[in-house]
Amino acid sequence: MDSVVQNFTSNAMLTPTHNATSATGIQGVVEAIQTMSYWKLFFTVICVGLVWDQVSYQIKKGKIAGPKWKMWPVIGPFLESLDPKFEEYMAKWDSGPLSCVSIFHKFVVIASTRDLARKILQSSKYVKPCVVDVAVKILRPSNWVFLDGKAHVDYRKSLNGLFTRNALAQYLESQEKVMDKYIEKFISFSEEKDFKPQVFFHEMREIMCALSLKAFCGDYITENQIRKVADDYYLVTAALELVNFPIILPFTKTWYGQRTADMTMKIFEKCAQMAKDHIAEGGKPTCVMDAWCQLMHDAKNKDDENSRLLHREFSNREISEAIFTFLFASQDASSSLACWLFQIVADRPDVMQNIRAEQLKVRDSDLSKPLSLDLIDSMKYTYMVVKETLRYRPPVIMVPYYVKQKFPIAPNYTAPKGAMLIPTLYPALHDPEVYEDPEEFIPERWVEGSPANAAKKNWLVFGSGGHVCLGQTYVMMTFTALIGKFAMHTNWEHEVTPLSEKIKVFATIFPKDDLLLSFKRRNPLTGEIKS
Ligand code: HEM
């Protein structure tokens, strides 16, 4: 007690002297500045800025893992981030449950454990999805993905009906047509190249784009429009890299990205009007846009909470912006899954054989049976192959979030407001305590009642919490159907290179050699391969 009083009084006594000293101090500094040359002043400001940059980094870093100092003043590891290496990400995750890095003024905290990742994804009070600055311009500020809190929850509820199993079943007919078309396309492409394995990275992106566009817009979108969007879409991905110049200047990556997005949304607006007309005339829904119009139509005569969210008329522009976010959310992740799936199945003849056997069995060898919900549900092994591919090579390895207010994420660490907080999904999916031999591809680990199936908390492939992936059932259904059909009707060979198993990060993850494949026609009943 005594010492407290003593401290208090000695502080009080110090104060006037301290004030007097600081007054002369400030005066001295002002005088020194006034007598300084412009050059000296310039360099002093730079030095103060550099010191502040380091001090602010130390304060924000606290006790978590990360470089002791910002190696490159101000920019930090900006140059490395332009060409991100998977091995560097792994090293960062291994450095501690929480680690940090600072690039320009952005302070980034990376969470690498399952529980920290889940905590972040489920803490909408403290965080919201972080989008690069240009994303708001490219996807437009009015886009629903930028909503937060209750507004976001309500909007999502109005979209949930578009991705239920029953809604998805309505899109299968047009999706199957796209699958059939691409089976032919891949075979003739390979034939033109004398069946020598070719890079299929671009073809995989194209088929994914075509499948999504057909599911979203049905027959309202023309073949030419699909081709144009599929050809140009990579410009949007390139424009939305995590590190990018925030102002859109003509002929830069972001400018091309914005032009592509605007062109695509214009196409979607026209499709939305055609869907409205079709449903108003009593037509049957066959795509996401139809389903949306049908939900609005049906909600008119209902008064429950969910129907009330659909009472207003969604404009064509609004529908086009939402559909663009579906394409945006799906294109890179789906292309990544497609590349790994086709690579792995080709490299594993045992897996290929099991898929083929199951595909014939569920159809009773009747090849004319169209895709349906029940048919896909019965493809248990094929489904496990898709699920294991997602675990083994999860397309989305991290999801950047933005800290809205100071977030006490761990007992010894509070993430500062304004920081970027990145939950990592990959380590939870390769956790040896949950998945035996996590670096092995084992579809059977997903049989009903298995430990992998029981470990729901580790299944972070599609995120968790309020922003969990809207398209996850769509992904599982579409890919199970797709790989099943390709396995029956084609035989594809994969040229294994030293880079095939290495991971390239381009928004999502891809085989580093861009996937070398060649397709031949196969008779599903006899297994005969035509060359
Ligand atoms: C292999 C394919 C896919 C993977 C791995 C994937 C994964 C993810 C992940 C990790 C998130 C973030 C979740 C979170 O923050 O907790 C997400 C969000 C989202 N995904 Fe997917 N996704 C895939 C395909 C799709 C498809 C095909 C669609 C649409 C048809 C879609 C629509 C969305 C949407 C709209 C969001 C944002 C939801 C919101 O903010 O409320 N995704 N996805």
Question: TL;DR?
Answer:
The chain is an alpha+beta fold. The protein has helices at 2-35, 38-61, 78-82, 86-94, 114-121, 133-139, 149-160, 165-192, 201-217, 223-232, 234-239, 253-280, 288-299, 305-308, 316-347, 349-362, 373-377, 380-392, 426-429, 451-454, 472-489, and strands at residues 98-103, 106-111, 127-129, 198-199, 401-403, 407-410, 413-415, 420-423, 490-494, 503-506, 508-511, 516-522, 529-530.
Folded structure, characterized:
- It is a single chain.
- The protein is of the alpha+beta class.
- The protein has two domains: 2-134, no CATH class; 135-530, Orthogonal Bundle (Cytochrome p450).
- Helix content is 55%, strand content 10%.
- The chain has helices spanning 2-35, 38-61, 78-82, 86-94, 114-121, 133-139, 149-160, 165-192, 201-217, 223-232, 234-239, 253-280, 288-299, 305-308, 316-347, 349-362, 373-377, 380-392, 426-429, 451-454, 472-489; strands at residues 98-103, 106-111, 127-129, 198-199, 401-403, 407-410, 413-415, 420-423, 490-494, 503-506, 508-511, 516-522, 529-530.
- It has a five-stranded mixed β-sheet. Strands 4, 9, 12 and 13 form a four-stranded antiparallel β-sheet that branches.
- α8 packs antiparallel against α9, α12 crosses α15 (316-347) and α16 runs antiparallel to α18.
- 38% of the residues are buried.
- The structure holds protoporphyrin IX containing FE.
- Its cofactor is heme.
- Heme binds at residue 469.
- Keywords: Heme, Iron, Metal-binding, Monooxygenase, Oxidoreductase.
